[in-house]
Amino acid sequence: MSAVDTTRDGAVATVTLTRPDKLNALDRATRWELIGALRAVAADTGVRAVVLTGTGRAFCVGQDLAAVEELEHADETVAGSYNPIAQAIAGMPKPVVAAVNGLAVGAGFGLALACDQRLASDTASFSCAFSKVGLVPDTAASWYLVRELGYTRAFRLAATGRTVRAAEALDLGLLDEVLPADALADRAHELARELASGPALALALTKRQFRAVCEVSFEAALAIEARHQGEAAAHPDHVEGRTAFAEKRAPRWG
Q: Whole-model pTM?
C-alpha cells in the first residue's frame, strides 16, 4: 500500500502522506516514495504549485522509531534519504505550500519549514523533538530555525523539544496563516492556485534568489538579482506583463 499519494487539480499538485495509523512517520520506504513524488511534480511542466500535507492526526512525526535499524548508521540515513527530501522542496522551481493538518515533529517539523508558504490548522502543533531521543535536528530544521528565530530561541526549542502550538508558531513567524481545521485544505489549495496563476519563471527565480541570499555577501546578492532580472526580462512573461499593464487588463501568463 502506498504511503504517499499525489493528486492533480489543474496546475496544482497535492502530495499527501498517507500513513495515518503511524502518524505519517517516515520509514525508509516512505521517504523514498516522498522523494519520488516530489521529484515527479518538480519535473512536471503542467504543475505550477504544490501542496504538501498529511492525513489523520498528524502532518508528519518524523523518523519511524520502530525502524531501529535505520539509526544504526544514522549519518547515512540522513544524508541518503532525509537531505534529498529537504533539497527536493527547496530546489523545486515552483512554490510549495505546507498544509500542516496536525502534529509536525522532528523531521516532520523540518518538512514544514522547508516549504515556501506554511499554513496550519488551529489544532496543529510543532516540536523539534530530536533531543528527547538523544538526537540532533536534521531535515534542514537547524538551517531554518536559526535563520528565522535567531540562535538562542532556536537552541531552546531544540534543547527542550517543547511543543509549540499553532498560534505561537504564527507569532514566532514560523507560519503564514492559521485556520480552522475544516478550512485548511481549501485555503491551501486557494493559495496554491493563486501562486500557480503567476509568472512561473519569475516565481522560480524569486524562490532561488531568496534562498540564496542568506548564504552570500551583499555584493553577491546584488549580482544574483541582476542575473535573474536579465533572465526574467528576456522571457515572454515579461512582455505579456508589460503589455497587460499598458492595456489595463489581467496578464495571461504562458
A: 0.91
